[in-house]
Design a protein that fits this description.
- The chain is α/β, with parallel strands linked by helices.
- It is built from eleven helices and twelve strands.
- The chain is globular.
- 43% of the residues are buried.
- The structure holds 2'-monophosphoadenosine-5'-diphosphate (ATR).
- Residues 132-206 form the Quinate/shikimate 5-dehydrogenase/glutamyl-tRNA reductase domain.
Length: 288
Amino acid sequence: MISRTPYRTLSGTSRLAGVMGWPVSHSKSPRLHGYWLAKYGIDGCYMPLPVEPDNFQDALKSLRNLGFSGVNVTIPQKEMAMPECDELSNRARRIGAVNTVTFAKDGRMLGDNTDGFGFIENLCQEAPNIDFASGPAVVLGAGGASRAVLIALLDEGSPEIRIANRTRKRAEDLATEINDPRINVVNWPLDPASLADAALVVNTTSLGMVGQPKLEIDLEGLPQTALVTDIVYAPLITDLLAQAKKRGNQVVDGLGMLLHQARPGFHRWFGIDPEVTPELREFVLLPD
Ligand code: ATR
């Protein structure tokens, strides 16, 4: 008798989701969600959806009309998704961008941003003793990723956040907009004093990524107890992390942020809060 197992196919009631972006070919999300769908034996599909920015609004509505459960939205469409949503989560509104859209049964589009969640969950999984309230955080960069990280750290009770950005004005504008007295803009490059009593250092810039310039930073004076993390995950161990590790600081790489940020969408669309495991990390990093 023929067995269904090697021929597992979609059914007439498969749940559909995907990632929209332009380009989208670099996205690890189809592989990541595909792994979870297979692991949990879910009748569903998660696909790459290359959509040019000009077609974004139409595409989003079409996916809803096609019966999709939801989509992830990536660069450059994270901001474009905001006005399209009928409802925004508090964190999406505060971050000013949407990365997870769920199509409700009544046709409403619900926008969320799970980047800050992914950032925090990654640190909590990899450094279970982390106490975000234990000391100042130093955040490098003032782009979209920085904004999600800042809001998440504030929500976790960080007592002070120092932002340093090449373009100081951008950091100042971000601080003004978030309007929390715990945020202070400091010099770029960093003065050693900015690191002296830090509990956490986060790189949210693209520096250190494959093909990008190196992040030049002097960690002299950073307490040994400080945790250093990078949202760059290609390479997995950036120069920043290697430098920090060498001097004895605990480090957490950025891959987990990508994996954890995907959990809320998968949970809503496919009904299971999936696990981030060492095997998943390995699987996502396998060459194409
Ligand atoms: P994302 O949404 O991923 O955060 P972004 O908004 O383009 O991307 O932000 C990129 C960040 O990396 C910014 O903080 C940027 O600094 P500027 O605001 O001065 O542009 C930082 N960055 C990129 N290239 C850099 C470089 N060569 N030197 C210093 N900072 C750099």
